[in-house]
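quick one
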Amino acid sequence: MIMKILISLPLVLIILYKLWSYLNKKYFILCLCKRVRALDGSPLESRIYIPPSKTPFGNNFDLLDFTPASVFKFMRDAALQAKGRSYLWYFFGTPMYNIVRAEDAEEVFQSSKLITKNVIYDLLKPLLGEGLLTSTDQKWHSRRKTLTPAFHLSVLQSFLNIFKEECKKLVKILHQNPGEELVLNQLIPQFTLNNMCETVLGIKLDDIEEGFQYRQSIHALEEVMLQRIANPLMYNIVYFYLFGDYRKHVDNLKTALDFSSRIIEERRKLFQHKDDVGKRQRYAMLDTLLAAEAEGQIDHQGICDEVNTFMFAAYDTTSTCLIFSLLMLALREDVQERCFEEVLHLPQDHDEASMLQFNELFYLECVIKESLRMLPSIPVIGRKVTEECVVNGLIMPRNTQINLHIYDIMRDPRHFPDPESFQPDRFLTENTTNRHRFGFVPFSAGKRSCIGQKFAILEMKVLLAAILRSFRILPVTTLQSLTFETGIGLRTQQDVKVKLQLRE
Ligand code: HEM
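structure w/ protoporphyrin IX containing FE:
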């Protein structure tokens, strides 16, 4: 008996080894997922870079216990190693296709099927529910259609006054302590959150008691998200409950959701007396949602999801871009002087400036775009393959995650020579004609591109013009002193500071 087993054991082992080899070609067995393959049968390595992993279990254990700063560095190192090619990671249950070139991004941006967001967005769902940013398929289509009119030019025109008022408040604060160091990370988010509360909800945050707690809760929720993003184990709710800041998450979530829900209820009462609304209330985006509710297109939960989505998608992105634009203006005196000369064309009284006049601040817009190119508010966005499909000649199994690394795409030296240098002239019309369509994508592109792009540019121009007009911006922080971090958005470990000097 023992002899029989001893004789047949090598045979069994050979069969098992053959079976393993056969299956492992199609499946990454130790990662419990199907492999990505080239459509034409060529070796995958000839089509895409496959970084070495630390263990036989794919890249699962390469990413544990990371900090937000090391996640940022990990991604930049991966792009560097890939030498301009897109690259592939494997995690348990899912391959992850990382795109760092405009040419590879094109097919994803243009696809009408690849519109479902990936696993990272699940972390946002407790706050955003099934809002425009996180939803997919039919729900997303119908919401996008409902909300598009809320960004029409005529609506932006009415928001311009809100931006100017908030701007006046901020510039008044700046006048109080000229010459002192300004911590932009403290000052600017207050401005953009106030703008959002008024344009989305129709309320002045400074005027209500809970305004301060709301601001605090949004900030705290972001801190917890940052912690979860840096550690894939924290995506698991049980692990997060046991080892993460679960309590902080739940408490602040309640504050933020209760706040917006209450404001919605109040606005609904006003909306139901439409005549009064027309006479006394400014339009807010919430009104578009309440009108859709009256027609049975959306319910209370849907309205809450959309409102929370707008607040979240808009306030941090614009403040990050403003912070980096002000930093770059401080660091580049020549660029700042050119912008200053341009804003002198606006009427002396800022209140008089029209939307057309802000639209004509072409060079200031180039500065904003170059800041977004070098330091995009959202450095990476994600999609999920919901049905096996072919992307860039690669067969992507169902559940493959796709990361579009906007940060790396916009630093491609083929499209932006000398990508590390700040050159707003790249965006002058004559310099953009031959650029790849998907080379500059800070607002994403295609169907799921940012709905608030024009809103954001206008809001940022109004503030930058007001600051440039009154003050000379002097440098304190240097780019080299900053450690960048990847959360949902791009951020820095250190505060970004500048000094302001009153202009004569
Ligand atoms: C500098 C400012 C901004 C930047 C850089 C930015 C960037 C982006 C990006 C990259 C996306 C795509 C996200 C993805 O695919 O996962 C996006 C989507 C979105 N943004 Fe913005 N955004 C900005 C300002 C705003 C503003 C001001 C609003 C609203 C007033 C807004 C509302 C949204 C919404 C609702 C979506 C989801 C759109 C959809 O999927 O249909 N964003 N934004």
